[in-house]
Amino acid sequence: MQVQRVVLNSRPGKNGAPVPENFRLEETTLVPDLKDGEVLVRTLYLSVDPYMRCRMNEDTGVDYVAPWQLFESVDGGGVGVVESSRCTTCSEGGVVTSFNWPWQTYAVMKGSVLQKVDPQLVDGHLSYFLGAVGMTGLTALLGVREKGNVIQGANQTMVVSGAAGACGSIAGQFGRLDGCVRVVGICGSDEKCRALVDDLGFSAAINYRKEDVPTRLKEHCPHGIDVYFDNVGGAISDTVITQMNKGSHVILCGQISQYNKDVPYPPPLSEEIQETLQRKNITRERFMVLNYMHKAEAALCELSQRVKAGQINVLETVVNGIENMGDAFCSMMKGGNIGKQIIKISE
Ligand code: NDP
């Protein structure tokens, strides 16, 4: 059968922004002769995520993901349906997901790398398995719970950077649900600011591209900042940390502002910011969702329930067609998405 797939065509270099031309769409022939343990899957939705940027380098610089190889199929989070199966645990018609789904319209995969998922968990909204009821939701929920020290009734203020993105939009909602009296989001457009306040219940939002972040933070956080969910790093985070209270907590989730630079992860802080952290006894431990997979099942259950109950609102930006994978990835890296960036591959 003829299938389409996306390969890595070139690398942007450690110090370059990715461009859609780094990816190439190919037609290829797939022989669906399944061996024992294999399944043929049809791809429904694919995910593009910031961590993929390091996979574009020859060396990712981290031990938990491998670099993509030039001219080979790119892979990442995906969800699809089993078309035919020679695997005892995957039945035809079942919905499955994987963290290593090839960017391909159909693929032969080992059943052992696929997780079966129940469409009822997301009321049939299968792309949520890549976002709010998948890795993104887990990152937000477990990040807040494991590193945030949010306490009901403690009158805490939370700030979220990258707040209108996939993780940030959910993290802020959990901050509120778990007891923060004030949740302020920082993001890159007025439209995103409106969505945070009107659709997601944030107390306030700051557009870092056009507003003065230190001034606006002082206005919106008159009692200082107790919890900071950091998705971006760089100058925005330095500003937030400067306004944090004694004994407060940074959830070090990601540092996307530094991903197109040749710096280690997490990128080093200035002496001044390190001194602030020390003087104010602010915790800033690295959070890695993959270290908490033993808590994933219960957390996914909570995410599913809260989404179904309307306690967590989900935002997505969906584009159609495998030919748009590279565009969608590059757009997400520059802020083109509100909520989770999803690519719909087939019905
Ligand atoms: P998002 O949906 O948040 O998309 C990325 C967003 O980052 C863009 O929409 C853009 O929004 C913002 N951004 C891009 N460049 C900059 C910049 N220079 N300064 C400020 N903001 C910028 O992606 P995810 O929710 O998937 O990921 C968010 C963060 O969480 C990333 O840092 C990622 O690496 C991290 N992460 C960490 C995990 C963990 O286990 N620790 C797991 C999953 C994700 P805007 O318009 O606001 O600029």
UniProtKB/TrEMBL annotation:
- Source organism's superkingdom? Eukaryota
Chemical reaction(s) catalysed: 13,14-dihydro-15-oxo-prostaglandin E1 + NADP(+) = 15-oxoprostaglandin E1 + NADPH + H(+); 13,14-dihydro-15-oxo-prostaglandin E2 + NADP(+) = 15-oxoprostaglandin E2 + NADPH + H(+); 13,14-dihydro-15-oxo-prostaglandin E2 + NAD(+) = 15-oxoprostaglandin E2 + NADH + H(+); 13,14-dihydro-15-oxo-prostaglandin F1alpha + NADP(+) = 15-oxoprostaglandin F1alpha + NADPH + H(+)
Give the Alcohol dehydrogenase-like C-terminal domain ranges.
Answer: 168-267
A GO BP entry is: prostaglandin metabolic process
Coarse class of the protein's main subcellular location? cytoplasm
InterPro entries in the record:
ADH-like_C, ADH_N_2, GroES-like_sf, MDR_fam, NAD(P)-bd_dom_sf, PTGR2
Listed CDD domains: PTGR2
Q: Which UniProt keywords apply?
A: Cytoplasm, Lipid metabolism, NADP, Oxidoreductase
Any one cellular component term from GO for this entry?
cytoplasm
Q: What are this entry's molecular-function GO terms?
A: 15-oxoprostaglandin 13-reductase [NAD(P)+] activity
Q: What is its EC number?
A: 1.3.1.48
Q: Does the keyword rRNA processing apply?
A: no
Q: Has the keyword Magnesium been applied to this entry?
A: no
If you read the UniProt record, what top EC class would you report for this enzyme, in one word?
Answer: oxidoreductase
* Subcellular location(s) of the protein: Cytoplasm
Q: Name one Pfam family in it.
A: ADH_zinc_N
Domain Oxidoreductase N-terminal: where?
5-117
Q: How does it assemble?
A: Monomer.
Q: Which family does it belong to?
A: Belongs to the NADP-dependent oxidoreductase L4BD family.
Q: What does this protein do?
A: Functions as 15-oxo-prostaglandin 13-reductase and acts on 15-keto-PGE1, 15-keto-PGE2, 15-keto-PGE1-alpha and 15-keto-PGE2-alpha with highest activity towards 15-keto-PGE2. Overexpression represses transcriptional activity of PPARG and inhibits adipocyte differentiation.
What's the protein name? Prostaglandin reductase 2
Biological source species: Etheostoma spectabile (orangethroat darter)
The upper taxonomy is:
Eukaryota, Metazoa, Chordata, Craniata, Vertebrata
